[in-house]
Every structure is written in structure tokens, then in C-alpha cells.
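Changelog note: in this version the structure field was regenerated for every chain. One regenerated record is shown below for reference.
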Amino acid sequence: MFNENAICCSGNDCSKTTTDENAYVELRYDAYGIPTRYYCDDCYENNYPYRKDAYYDYLNAGEYLDDDY
């Protein structure tokens, strides 16, 4: 029976839903706080395409937006 309140994980080949025990499917956010999709903990750790450490950090580029020089 289909549960219309169940949310599926967006990971590749993952069939976990919010109704599964120990699945913990939650809405995940990228580094800028923008909601991306629902992912389970396993897919969030291993298969999450919006990893926070993969974003470009402008502070490492040598140019800053502040003009306090």
C-alpha cells in the first residue's frame, strides 16, 4: 500500500523512505543554506552531490570584497 506521506531518499539507487526504521531521511541543505533534496544519512555521507567542502571559497583566491586595506 502506498503511503502518500512517505518521502523517498534522492540518492542513487536508494529506496529508503521516511517510514522505514532507522532510515533518517531528512531535507538537506548546501553550504549556503539552500535546501537541496531529501537524503538518508548513508547517502548524505557517501553520495551527496552538494558537499559543503566542494564549494569554492573566495577567501582562498587572494581577492576580498572588503576594502579595508
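Spot check on this record: The chain has a mean pLDDT of 77. Residues 1-50 form one domain.
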